[in-house]
Fold each of these.
Amino acid sequence: MTDSQSPGAATPSNVKPDTTGFLPGDDTWTQFRNIYSILTGKMSNEGIEKFRVARDTRNQEADCKRCEDQRDYLLQYSPTIRFLSESIQQLGGDLHNHNIYCRRCTDRKGGGFDPEYGILICANEMKDQGHLEDTIAHEMVHAYDHLRFKVNWSDNLRHAACTEIRASSLSGECRWAREFFRRGQWKLTQQHQECVRRRAILSVRARPTCKDEAHATRVVNEVWDSCFRDTRPFDEIYR
């Protein structure tokens, strides 16, 4: 008899959840028990995060493969992604599948843009192809702004606020249907503007040089009018 089969060894039926309510294990029954605990409110926020990390680790290969397949499809067939890619090329940049990376992320974000390396897509955070399209478009607006307006990413919060306003407004992530069905924002008027403002403030607040939420709000408000009206390289807000 091996150690794993010795009397008293833990099995999926008798393993107990830890103090957070999370139950380790990759089998279907364990996953069902964890999901049940989440739905009934028996798992703490720490336990939910443990569940998500375990799920993301388990599904890493499949998530990245799906992300890469959808990325390649969007680069070929999405009008928005193709237009942004061509606009970036006209400014001397190059963003395609060789520098748009699908990876598992450990922090809860959709992706990011780095002027030196390209775009990171957090494959484990992508809900579907539409979500991926919005995320790539968002980061491509940042890339366009970097080339067109020489954004100072490290020190100038007004620059950061402006590109965040433009990226949230032009990418499609703040369109009415996504706010209504995905995020529970049910207002029928000024919804797009409020979404853009909210997301820009959150992004600016996360930067090291930002003091607090009041500081982030003030910076966003200072650049709001000019940056929200600026739809380049588009003629208008399409998504």
Amino acid sequence: MPSMKSAIRYWRIFEKYSFPPVAYDSTHLPSLSVLPVAFWWSHQHLDCRLITTRSFVQSKKGFPPYRSNYECSPKPQETLINSPVEEVKTTKVDHLELEEDRSAYVNLGFSPAQITQLFSLQLDVPFQSKLTAISELLLLGLSITTILKTLEKKPELLGMSPKHLKERADLLRRFDLDAGSINQVAVNFPSIFTVPHKRIKSLENLLKEKCLFTMAQVSKILQTSPQLLLEELNDVEYKFQFAYFRMGIKHREIVQSGFFQASLAEINKRINFLERLGRYQTPDKKEQTQIVNPKLKSIIRASEQDFVIEIACSSIEEYEVFKKLLADEEEQRRQQEEAMEEFSDSENDDGSGSE
């Protein structure tokens, strides 16, 4: 057994790290003389052993929790208790924000199904930006159905600034496009809202100043053939010249036929085929022909089978042979043009060298 002096020293340590007074009431401590050898552990280990008992007594008696400088490990219960509370708060906030978003779209006229469709697009755009962009599109005359179809094809539209959308709306109104026309263009060609303003103006100037279309005709072309905005201006001009000079078609029929919607290569094939069969003739300077030409609209809009059988009065086999011959002729023509260019370049080189 330890000496009395050592016992007194350990008793003082015990007093220093012991329970509050109430703990003595509920715990009967033995005398120093009968304390077991296991009691004489270090005071740090003793304090760790007593934390659980102390916390239990304090929770029963209503005392504030005791904290020691020597607590052995953090209490995992605190993490388990605090984390769910934070998740619940976050979930409640997200739920409230979602309800506010839904209410805003309901005020714009969206149905629950349309709101679900809009959210399913998962557009990484701030809520206020989306709401502003959609509001501008509604003011432009687009229906909610059209807006959703447009966003599926062109989701970056919602990233456009309100200023850009307002300017684009003013530009489209200047072309006298009504609500129905704007909805049609938006669904078939959503890039109408993202194409640079300068590009639209350049196409307008080309059609008005070089091709001599009226403003009403330009509006109709833009409505029916908005893809021209993505084509090279030289190609658009050449296409017009093919119709006007090669085919003898005037402005009104070019617009009404939807000429700019068709591929120039396909139109060229069909016109050549009809000419070789004697079923098409380019008008003379007096706009006269010796035969009655089929309407341009029927030539370019008919399916290949209907064109061959009903308009050309021929067979699919004959048309296939003709297309192969035409491709060979065009290849030979291309090679001849390249040879002429090389010959011209060599002559220029010789002339500059002799000087």
Amino acid sequence: MDPETRQIKLALMGVGRWGTHLLRNCLAHPQLQVRAVVDPSSERLTTIAQTFHLDASVALLRSWEAALNIDGLEAVAIATPATTHEAIVTAALKRQLHVLCEKPLTLTANTSKALCQLARQQNRQLFIDHTYLFHPAVMAAKANLNRLGTPRYGYAARTNLGPVRHDVDALWDLAIHDIAIFNHWLGDFPTHVQAQGLNWLKRSNQVQLADVVWCRLKYASGFEATVHLCWANPHKQRQLTMVCDRGSLIFDEMRPESPLTLQLGQLEADTFSPIGLSTESIDIPKQEPLATMCEHFVQSVLTNQSSSISSGIVGTDLVAILEALSKSLNQAGAWISTQ
């Protein structure tokens, strides 16, 4: 069958806030045929079926195990809580299915590595939905980095007044986005990390979760980054900056009309006076990152080739970094190796 017209039969697990966006994009893709939608809530399934005008060919199921038994199924997309990922991904891969999994892949690097190994054994693709890596501004930034010279340091802020999670802390909820972007731009991952945080909000289950976290990342090249994370902050911030020796790159989602800016300029060698100053806004194509991610997943399945952008290995590296940051957080900010 022509790979340009072949449809991939897919089941989608979980239609919460993010799963609903994922379903919308899967339904819109001409080479994805959604055969089942899974969610434990019957009411939620009814709402989804009405919202998206799903016909009788799409099974509405409360059990992901039942979805794996659908004849002709080729792939699954998983947008369930991270604690469920290991079991669902394992079962899907053992059924010879390709897997698109919401981040984080799992909650430990060891379990993530095991899933990558299983995917290789089964000759199936394990693709992680790190949507920011498919954001047109992030992709354009990587293409323009060579204009700025040697990367020196970076900083990011991801804060807002809510939403507050009750299952993970602000670190696991928010940090993965900015770390993934820094790693992607640098083509590397940090060797050592540090995290410190504070807990203010009192939850009914008495779980102590950090509501604000400051992270530091050290890379082998000498590049360092600082990330500020908080879900109890009055200012909504979604900004990431990389400072290089000939200028800086600024990605600011709160400026949707011009999210990517190059601030060119450097310090003169003898007097250290600023020279060559200019600001350039980079044109960004109007495309939804999640739609681009779905297209990459489709191509990965059709060619049975691992993604160079967001494979299971990339997802595993990010889980290992989060694990190391959690260890640092629990050790009052000690520097922890990611190796």
Amino acid sequence: MSDVILFGEPMVMFVAETEGPLDEVENFTKLLAGADVNVAIGLKRLGHSVTYATRLGRDPFGTYIEKKLRKEQIHTQITYDAEHFTGYQLKNKVSEGDPEVFYFRRNSAASHLSEADVEAIPLDGVRVLHMTGIPAALSGSCRNASYRLIERARERGICVTFDPNLRPTLWESRHAMIRTVNHLASMADIVLPGTAEGEILMGSSDPAEIAAFYRGRGARMVFVKEGPKGAYADTPEGCTHIAGIPAEQVVDTVGAGDGFAVGIISGWLEHLPVAQMVERANAIGSIQVTVKSDNEGLPTREELAAYIAKRGGGAQ
């Protein structure tokens, strides 16, 4: 069985070829997107075995996603849905700041994931279950499936990592988002919030306060993303800030947090010291912002080592 199980909604993404509002763009490039699928691809490129669980429509987009996952040599646990479509999104091109993203995912195939789907996922030999807050935002059945999959992992002593990955427009209310995401985080061993997410979820953007909040709710390790500044780690080894690794050129910030998760999860699997885990996470995030795709910049082990050697990093 795989080292890591991931669960969520992969989507086809159409990225604008030129800058400007989405309604004025004429040409797009088709790519694969999705926070959890980005992490799956990143872990596989670092040599870890990965299984990705999802639900796809029986349509050209579903076929495209399945082929892309197979090309990345990711094992799949796919339920096929003949009645609902595969989700997709549009993303514009920007020279600075975050791009505009418009989703077509309401009532998608993945939004119909259920507890029955996750009960069918084999967990023997799995070391990590990585979850985000996105599936829980898609529908009530997805929310129940998220809880059940984490419960199954905890019953088997599998390490649960959780990235809030807030998508406010997908939730029925801000209150439901905060309550559910914090509850899911309380069930995880490793929590990966950003400072902006901390402001929303617990009322502070201070990394130490965010980390203390989730440690107080049961997390063994909390890694708070601070963007280019780096990250703050609160673990049984103590608390520390690890400096960021500046990117040569920022092209698109989407996917940086997923790259960070790749670094933390792979570092945990390889028993790296905390400082090295975070340095790796910072480096992968730095690499990812230099490309327009959400995942095509994710490095191999050799590319990652060369980047760290060239760009530097380290604990403070």
